[in-house]
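TASK: fixed-backbone design
INPUT:
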């Protein structure tokens, strides 16, 4: 029997809640500890009751700062985890804002809903999973390691972070398990980015062969629009909505997607292709995250650096307003003229974007622009599916606004890019475990990988496999 094994505690046959456990003779390593996002009650149950094996892990290795990979770390620490959390410097800096913001959103949403439904006898009072002090306690456990520097999180384990090109600070995690002739290499892809995306460098290819790969498969059966089409699509949507005298609401992850959209709008503005229209970034977290971006130009690609040299700040231009206070956010609902409102959360599950959707979704003059993956059962997915009615804050509303899905903005590798990554990094692998994907995306990808001679396997929830 092997002395090494992997257990899939989360993000198996689903896209959110990334969490995988590696057992070794010297202890256990947790890869990611993310929020599960989906049906409200199911999400709450899963996020509140983390697996016992995760709580007892010795070390946590974090691939990146998106909440579906990092959002449960404060709960983990609150419930008893005592290990270190290793990640890249940029991810550590981002989590300093992301996790505290997650806590504030939970507290704020709980207060809002508890007050709104206080007279409803069927309503169960909501308590946040953690507060800001819990998030701060978790952040004290973070230790930063730069790309390419090998370190030992446990005896007999060597770890190296490799640039994943997905968001600022995102990493593939390369593990060397054991010593001498018994050494095994396992690569956890985290979330893989795409070549040619603005701002960040392209994903790196590991320089050593791997025995096992745990690989994301979010878009395993889909090919994205060309990266270079994003400007044309954005320009078209803006001009069409202005012609209707409507507003554009863009639910966007505060980390990564918001900065990409602002940079794209900045480029259109300087090219004379963006009509005069105010742009509001309504997310205090987005503002804080953008400041972290400015601290890490070492992660930028040549395009971003050249634009900065010529035009200055890539995240600011005439007409952009970063909205901080709650009162300023509420005031946006009184706008009568066309405007672009970019707000979190990216899957429309919490935060200020819900208020903007509530106030725009029933007017056909307006446009909702979806620029990222929407997990099953989220409000964002229901909008993408163009359901006739959707619930916002427990109230059904007609979906009359236009819906535009611009997947050229996706920061996830698509089917072709995933296949290329697997063929390059996993051609000699004993097994490639597919995680972080829904079955309709994973199964076609697995078949294509097998046809290409790759040892592909769709990981099941709770599955334990020897390494």
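OUTPUT:
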């Amino acid at each position: 029997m092997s002395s090494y094994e992997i257990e899939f505690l989360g993000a198996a046959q689903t896209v959110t809640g990334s969490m995988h456990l590696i057992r070794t003779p010297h202890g256990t390593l947790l890869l990611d500890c993310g929020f599960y996002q989906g049906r409200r009650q199911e999400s709450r149950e899963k996020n509140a009751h983390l697996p016992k094996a995760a709580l007892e892990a010795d070390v946590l290795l974090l691939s990146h700062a998106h909440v579906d990979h990092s959002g449960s770390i404060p709960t983990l620490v609150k419930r008893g985890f005592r290990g270190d959390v290793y990640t890249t410097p940029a991810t550590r800096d981002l989590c300093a804002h992301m996790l505290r913001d997650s806590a504030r959103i939970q507290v704020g949403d709980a207060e809002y809903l508890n007050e709104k439904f206080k007279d409803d006898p069927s309503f169960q009072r909501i308590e946040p999973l953690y507060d800001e002090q819990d998030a701060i306690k978790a952040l004290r456990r973070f230790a930063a390691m730069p790309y390419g520097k090998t370190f030992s999180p446990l005896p007999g384990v060597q770890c190296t972070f490799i640039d994943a090109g997905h968001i600022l600070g995102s990493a593939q995690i390369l593990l060397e398990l054991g010593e001498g002739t018994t050494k095994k290499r396992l690569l956890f892809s985290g979330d893989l980015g795409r070549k040619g995306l603005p701002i960040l460098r392209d994903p790196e290819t590991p320089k050593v062969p791997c025995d096992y790969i745990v690989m994301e498969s979010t878009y395993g059966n889909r090919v994205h629009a060309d990266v270079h089409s994003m400007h044309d699509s954005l320009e078209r949507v803006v001009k069409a909505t202005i012609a209707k005298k409507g507003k554009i609401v863009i639910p966007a992850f505060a980390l990564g997607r918001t900065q990409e959209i602002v940079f794209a709008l900045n480029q259109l503005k300087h090219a004379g292709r963006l009509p005069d229209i105010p742009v509001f970034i309504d997310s205090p977290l987005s503002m804080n995250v953008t400041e972290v971006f400015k601290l890490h130009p070492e992660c930028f690609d040549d395009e971003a650096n050249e634009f900065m040299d010529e035009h200055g700040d890539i995240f600011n231009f005439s007409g952009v307003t970063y909205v901080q206070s709650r009162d300023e956010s509420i005031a946006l609902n009184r706008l009568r003229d066309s405007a672009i409102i970019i707000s979190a959360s990216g899957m429309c599950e919490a935060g200020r974007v819900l208020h903007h959707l509530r106030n725009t979704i029933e007017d056909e003059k307006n446009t909702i622009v979806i620029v990222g993956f929407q997990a099953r059962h989220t409000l964002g997915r229901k909008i993408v599916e163009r359901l006739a009615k959707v619930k916002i804050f427990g109230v059904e509303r007609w979906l009359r606004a236009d819906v535009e899905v611009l997947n050229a903005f996706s920061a996830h590798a698509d089917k072709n890019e995933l296949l290329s990554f697997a063929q390059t990094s996993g051609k000699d692998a004993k097994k490639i475990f597919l995680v972080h994907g829904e079955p309709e995306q994973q199964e076609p990808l697995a078949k294509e990988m097998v046809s290409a001679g790759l040892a592909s396997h769709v990981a099941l929830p709770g599955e334990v496999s020897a390494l």
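COMMENT: The chain is about 35% helix and 20% strand.
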